[in-house]
Structure formats: C-alpha cells, structure tokens
Amino acid sequence: MTLFDLVYFTILALYVLGTLFYMAGAFSHRVQLKRLAGFIAGAGLLLHTLILIHFLAATSISSLSVGYFIKLFSWCLVAIFFILWWRFKLEFLALIASPIAILLFIFSFTHKTAAKMPPHLAGPFFGLHIGTLFGSMALLAMAFAAGIIFLRLEKKIKGKARLSEMDREMPALSTFDRVNYWAVVVGFPLYTIGMLAGFVFAKLSWGQVLTGDPKEIVSIVVWLLFAVLFHNRLARGWWGRRPAVWAIGIFTLAIGSMIVINFFVPSHHSFRPIPSVEKPALTAPTNP
After folding, report:
1. Which of 144, 2, 10, 138 is nearest to 79 (CA)?
2. Do you know which InterPro entries this protein is assigned to (predicted)?
3. d(CA 115, CA 272)
4. d(CA 184, CA 227)
5. Distance of CA 157 to the CA centre of its chain
6. What is the DSSP code (8-state) at residue 65?
7. Are residues 134 and 91 in the same domain?
8. Together in a domain, 37 and 145
9. Residues 132 and 250 placed together within one structural domain of the fold
10. Cβ contacts of 202 within 8 Å, gap of 6 or more
C-alpha cells in the first residue's frame, strides 16, 4: 500500500464514520453524536482538499485522471453540504450528501486513465467549465434531497398521517424550500457560466461551438429547464411543491446524462476512450 492509498483510505474511512455517527445521532436524538459526525467528516474534507490540491499542483490538468475529476465532484458535494450546514444549519442534508460522496469516491478508483487532453486546451476555460458545473450539480443534489423530503413530509401532513420520530426532528417545510431557493439562485448562474466556458472550450478544441455531441444536447435541455425554474422562482414567486418537483426532475436528468453518456456513450465527453479505426497500410503494387 502506497502513501496515497493510505490517504485515500483515511478519507473514505472518515466520510463513512461521519455518516454513521450522524445517523446514530439522528436516530438516538443525541446532538453530541451529530457534532462529532461533523468534526469527523470535516477532517475528511480537509484531507480530501489537500490531496486534490497536491495532484493539481504536481500534475498538469491535461494529465489528470478521470478518477481525479470524479473525486473533485465528490469533494464539491461535501463542501456544498458544509456551506449549507454552516449558513442555514441544515444538517439533515448529510443524509444525501455523504452517501453520494462516498459512492463517487469509491467509484473514482475504477477510472485511473488520464483525460488525454492537449495541454494547450486544458487551461482556464476547461477548469472554469468543470468547476462551475460540478458546483451547480452539487447544489442541485441538495435541492433534490430537500425536494424529496419536502414532498414526503407535505404528503404526511396533508394526509394527517402519523409522523415518525425522525419526521419530528426535521425542520419546517419552509426550510426545505429555502434550500431549493438558494440552490436555484446560485446554481443556475454557475451552470450558465459552465455552459459558456464549455462552448469556448469546444470552439478551441473542435473548431465549432456545437458539435452535435449527445452531452451538449442534454446539457442545453437541462439549462432550459433550469432557466424556467430560475425565472419562476424569482419572477413568479414559485414556492413549495412545484419547485421541489422541478428540482428533482432537473437533477435526475442531469445526473442520468452524466452516468449514461459519460460512461456508456462514445462522445467528446465520454470517460472511456473512443476506439479508433485503423486504416490499412498502403503498399506499392507489384509487377506481374
């Protein structure tokens, strides 16, 4: 086991322990366990941050592996969770952020191949493209989780069903809607910046802004849906159930396209190499 393997194992162990302690604290109603979970997961995030910075400083972006970018997305989820926890005291989001981050971190070990980008293209526009989109996706994940819980609690409250102990520990419905609001207000501009940076990167890489790539088409559809949600939240005062349903649908489409297109469909955004067709070598004709 190398030093880096030990660091990765430590990060994973801290995330898992943080999740388990938080779940134990939530079910036993012990605030001390939840606080301990926060400190443990925070230590994992700090170590996660340091290892990402190390590889970014020691290696050119064009040489970074696909696994690095998956780890970066995992980091974004945990970082966004801690920001929302610190700003709005929304600790319940740990129930969605931690498991997804853990799964992504584990999954990153199966993709150690380099992204193989030309060094002159893997510059600021690519970094801006990846960073803003990952940040937006992490915010959408929080809105997705808040939306699921909002719909579940609203159904129980309207149906006058019996609330479990866990349900009683949850904040008011307005708190879940506030998560949706901030995820949309901050996430949509980030997604827009990421799309624009991607168009610039595409122009530099392939000579045209739109290449007909499946990921481009789905991303534009996601942006249009996101724009509708953004407009209606700010201009028309959408609240509650409707923006929750929209956030769930947009995140499902975005994460679904990431899984299906990036891993299974040959494209510019594929995490697997596109097989090249070798042309037969030309031989000189022989005299009869």
Report:
1. 138
2. Cyt_c_assembly (IPR002541), YpjD/HemX (IPR052372)
3. 9
4. 9
5. 31
6. B
7. no
8. no
9. yes
10. 208, 209, 210, 211, 216, 268
Neighbours of 34 (CB within 10 A): 18
| Residue 247 to residue 207: CA distance in whole angstroms | 34
Cα(122)–Cα(45) distance, rounded to whole angstroms?
A: 26
Are 5 and 66 in a shared domain?
Answer: yes
Residue type, 194: G
227-237 residues labelled b (16+ CB within 10 A) or e (exposed): eebbebbeeee
Number of structural domains (the chain) is 2
Based on the domain organization, do 8 and 127 belong to the same domain? no
- Domain range for 163: 123-270
Residues 249, 250, 255, 259: is their CA dihedral positive or negative?
positive
Spatial CB neighbours of 152, under 8 Å, sequence gap ≥ 6:
none
Taking the C-alpha atoms of residue 35 and residue 21, their distance in angstroms, rounded to an integer, is 9
The one-character DSSP state at 114 is B
Does the predicted TM-score (pTM) go above 0.85?
no
Q: Which residues pair with 65 in a beta bridge?
A: 114
* β-sheet bridge partners, residue 114: 65
Q: Are residues 237 and 223 in the same domain?
A: yes
Helix and strand element counts for the chain (H, E): 9, 0
Q: What is the pLDDT of residue 29?
A: 77
Question: Does 127 lie in the same domain as 114?
Answer: no
In a domain, 204, yes or no: yes
Identify the H or E element spanning 207. Answer: none
Alpha helices in 29-164 (DSSP H): 31-58, 66-88, 94-107, 124-158
Query: Would the pLDDT of 116 be above 70?
Result: no
Among 235, 225, 20, 26, residue whose Cα is nearest residue 140 = 225
- The per-residue pLDDT for range 76-94, each reduced to its tens digit, is 989 988 888 877 777 777 7
Chain center to CA of 204: 25
